[in-house]
Amino acid sequence: MGRGLDADRQIRPADDSLTGMTNIPVTTWSLEQTAPTDLLSAAMPEGDVRIVRSEVPSPEFSRFLYASVGGDIRWIDRLGWTYARWQEHLGRPGVETWVAYDRGTPAGYVELEPQDDGVVEIVYFGLIPAFRGRRIGGHLLSYGAARAWDLAERWPGLAQTKRVWLHTCSLDGEHAMDNYLRRGFKLFDTKVEEQAEVPAPGPWPGAYRA
C-alpha cells in the first residue's frame, strides 16, 4: 500500500527560518507508466469501500484530505496556501480529486493533474493513517491510475493521455514504493538530496500521539 507522496514538495537547502534544524538525506524516486496496459490492478478490498470523484472544487475538503493524509509524513507545502490559491488550483481544467470512502467515511484520495503533451501526474496519493494496512491503498492507486489514463474522456480539449507518472520519496510510507511497482509503474529517475528535517505537523498538533 502506498502511504502517500508529496509532488509539490521540492527538496531544497534549509533557509534562515530553518536555522538549527538537522539536514537529512532524502531519496526521491520518479516512476511512470507509458501505456494503459502497464497498469496492474489490485484486488478489491473487503467491505463497503467506494471511490468517488469530488466534482465540486472545495478548498475546505481538499485541505482536510491533504492535512489528514500527509500530516504524519511531512506534507507541508500546501498548509500555507490561501483559500484563493486552493480555488485556483482545483478549478484548473483536468485537475481531479478521487476520494476513497470506507462505509461513508473518507479514507484517502488521489489527485490528478494534466500536463503538456498528454502527460498526467498523480500529484497526491495516500490514506488517512487509521485506514492503512487494510488493502485499500492498492485499490485506490489502481483506480486513480486508470482515471489518469481516461482523463481526456471527461475533459474535452485535453490531449489523450500518453504517460502517467508520479514520484515518492524516503519520507513516505515504507510500503509506498512496493505498491507503485506492483501497480505496474517503472522507475525512471532517482535523486538523493539533503533537506531540513521538519517535524510532522499532523492534521492538528498531537493528533497521532497516544
Polypeptide structure, described:
This protein has 210 residues and is an alpha+beta fold. 21% of the residues lie in helices and 30% in strands. It contains five helices and eight strands, in the order βββααβββααβαβ. Strands 1, 2, 3, 4, 5, 6, 7 and 8 form an eight-stranded mixed β-sheet that branches. Helix 1 (59-70) packs across helix 2. The longest helix is centred in the C-terminal third of the chain and has 14 residues, at 136-149. It is globular, with a radius of gyration of 17 Å. Mean pLDDT is 89; it is low at 1-18.
Mind describing the biggest β-sheet?
A: 8 strands, mixed
Structural class: alpha+beta
**How far apart lie the N and C ends?**
24 Å
Q: What's the helical proportion of residues? A: 10-25%
Question: C-alpha Rg, in Å?
Answer: 17 Å
For this structure, the quaternary state is: single chain
SSE succession: EEEHHEEEHHEHE
Quick one: how many beta strands? 8
Overall outline: globular
Low-confidence stretches: 1-18
| Tally of helical runs | 5
Mean pLDDT: 89
Share of β-strand residues: 25-35%
Protein name: GNAT family N-acetyltransferase
Organism: Streptomyces longisporus
